[in-house]
Amino acid sequence: METVVSGIRSTGKLHLGNYYGALSNFVKMQDEYNCYFFIADLHSLTTHPTPGDLGSTIRQVVVEYLAAGLDPEKSTIYIQSDVPEVAELYLYMNMNAYLGELERATAFKDKVRANPDNVNAGLLTYPVLMSSDILLHHGTKVPVGKDQEQHLEMTRTFGNRFNRLYNVDYFKEAFAFSYSNKLVKIPGLDGQGKMGKSNGDASCVYLSDEPEAIRKKVMRAVSDSGPTEMNQPKPEVIQNLFDLLTIVSTPDTVSHFDDLYNRCEIRYGDFKKQLAEDMILATQDVRNRIKEIEGDDEYIKKVIKLGAEKAGASAQKTIKEVREIIGLKKLY
Ligand code: TYM
User: Fold this and answer.
1) Considering the entire predicted model, what is its pTM?
2) Which terminus of the chain, N or C, has less C-beta within 10 A?
3) What CATH architecture is 197-291?
4) pLDDT, tens only, 301-330
5) Which of 4, 13, 18 to probe ligand 1 with, by most ligand atoms within 8 A of CB?
6) Confidence class of residue 227 from pLDDT cuts 50, 70 and 90?
7) Ligand 1: which of 35, 144, 150 to mutate, judged by most atoms within 8 Å of the beta carbon?
8) Sign (positive/negative) of CA torsion 144, 146, 148, 151?
């Protein structure tokens, strides 16, 4: 059975981008594959969260994983820092990751542009830690959104380079995966292209948002003054809203608003109301389960402990083998 590995950083509440880009695929994959899903708390350290915030966001992501339907009986659900072997593999993999290729990574360049005062080494070597997460369990399928595709390419480069350097056929190649065949990019509500926490709360609909909050955000979403000619192509901000509608609504609803748009008869107020109500419906079950699970400390602890044990066993085996391949043998 193929092994699946993926994670989400503990940087806050999960939004529809995380859900449709990653988490909804995790849930489906657990019936078909040997799955490892983790909370990437080490990756979230690049932005220096306070210890208090870090602890509560890690817990929040665990709750949201479970609320979305991840099942600890089917998948290994763990916290990245509970498996310190990943930091050791990261050290080894850093020895054959080169400055030029790390600097060329699109996500790195975007982060440098957005926050030039915090270009730390952890940010530069982010893809090396990510490759270590995957290689640690010999993952071959990695459910992620479109923005992570390049990191998967880099993971293959690092794994293949390790194999060549030590003349082994040890690490397998991992590929980004989505059930929809195409990796998805969920747009934000702010006309900025991608839904993301770094674009601010107004851009994101969170899985835990109450219906009233969703209505408010959607009604304020960036749009324009409306089409002026029949069948004119949609500008990006409007296409983004249609893309969101496609994800949460039925094809009939989408084609209804599409027709209205093409006939220059669309009223954005009605369109946004429909979008908000369909988002509320699409997130309803997860929202309710978050409320059920978040107070259940015992259950959460049990899940995390079980995950740490299962992921630890797989990680320890890999690290032992990697040390042998590298030549780090005990001399005593
Ligand atoms: P993070 O926390 O930035 O994102 C987690 C997942 O959510 C997806 N995602 C989106 N997908 C579609 N549209 C969006 N607007 C959107 N926003 C976020 C991301 O593509 C991602 O799948 N680097 C990873 C975390 C990670 C990881 C790994 C993933 C660390 N190690 C190993 C896979 C395997 C990340 O992007 O986190």
Assistant:
1) 0.97
2) C
3) Orthogonal Bundle (1.10)
4) 999 999 999 999 999 999 999 999 999 988
5) 18
6) very high
7) 144
8) positive
Order of strands across the sheet that contains 175-177: 76-79, 34-40, 3-9, 141-143, 175-177
Question: 13-46 burial string, b = 16+ CB within 10 Å, else e?
Answer: bbbbbbbbbbbbbbbebbeebbbbbbbbbbbbbb
How many C-beta atoms surround the C-beta of residue 312 within 10 A? 16
Q: Is residue 146 within 8 Å of 183, Cβ to Cβ?
A: yes
Q: Which residue, by CA, sits nearest to atom 26 of ligand 1? A: 7
The catalytic residue among 146, 197, 234, 273 is: 197
What residue segments make up the domains of the chain, in order of their start? 3-177+297-326, 197-291
| Ligand 1 pocket list (CB less than 6 A) | 5-9, 17-18, 21-22, 40, 43, 130, 133-134, 142, 144-145, 147-148, 184-186, 194-196
Cβ neighbours of residue 208 under 8 Å, at least 6 residues apart? Answer: 13, 14, 64, 287, 290
Q: How many CB atoms lie within 10 A of CB 315?
A: 24
**For the domain with range 3-177+297-326, which CATH number is right: 3.40.50.720, 3.30.230.10, 3.40.50.620, 3.20.20.30?**
3.40.50.620
Tokens representing 151 are 């990191």
